[in-house]
Amino acid sequence: MSDLNEVGERDAWRCWLCDEPVDPESSVNSDRGPSVDGGAAPKGKKQADGTDRLAHRACNTRKGKIAPVVPWGAELFVVDPAPIVATVDRLTRKGGQEVVARCPTRADADEASAWLLDRLTRFAPGLALTTHVDEGGGQYLLKLRAT
């Protein structure tokens, strides 16, 4: 297990599950306090990359009971967003690419693309990913690729 301060610094003191700030001064016994999550997979499944991640204590505890859900940013204009955890799991195992969202404008797709890549640097730091936007049918498809 990694040192809490090392993991916190590397993850910019943001929870890998909810992407909210984690206060390094908060008690580790507080629900919003920092904890090191040694596994990104739900209980009973092996973590793919073996990376320790920073999480709020409550987020880490809840993840042990149910499969983790990483939400898309509420400020994004995306339609039919793919579940981030399942998509990353598939790309980790199989590689390739997947359509992860549809957007009404190129600007919305570019914003979602930048947000997703930033978010995945904390969620899947060991996985090399890129995004690509394709136009078609009056919408823009956001694709996530494992490189």
β content, as a range?
15-25%
> Helix share of residues?
25-40%
Q: How far apart lie the N and C ends?
A: 28 Å
- Silhouette: elongated
List low-pLDDT spans: 41-48
Give the helix tally.
Answer: 4
Topology, number of strands: 5
What integer is the average pLDDT? 85
Quick one: biggest sheet?
A: 3 strands, antiparallel
| Overall number of domains | 2
User: How are the strands of the biggest sheet laid out side by side?
Assistant: 3-5-4
Q: What gyration radius follows from the Cα positions, in whole Å?
A: 16 Å
Descriptive tags:
single chain; 147 residues; alpha+beta; 2 domains; 4 helices
Would you write up a description of this structure?
The chain has helices at 4-10, 57-63, 84-94, 106-123, and strands at 34-37, 53-56, 97-103, 129-136, 139-146. With 147 residues, the protein is α+β, with helices and mostly antiparallel strands. It folds into 2 domains: 4-63, no CATH class; 84-146, no CATH class. It has a 3-stranded antiparallel beta sheet with strand order 3-5-4. The radius of gyration is 16 Å and the shape is elongated. The two termini are 28 Å apart. The relative contact order is 0.15. Residues 23-53 are annotated as: Disordered.
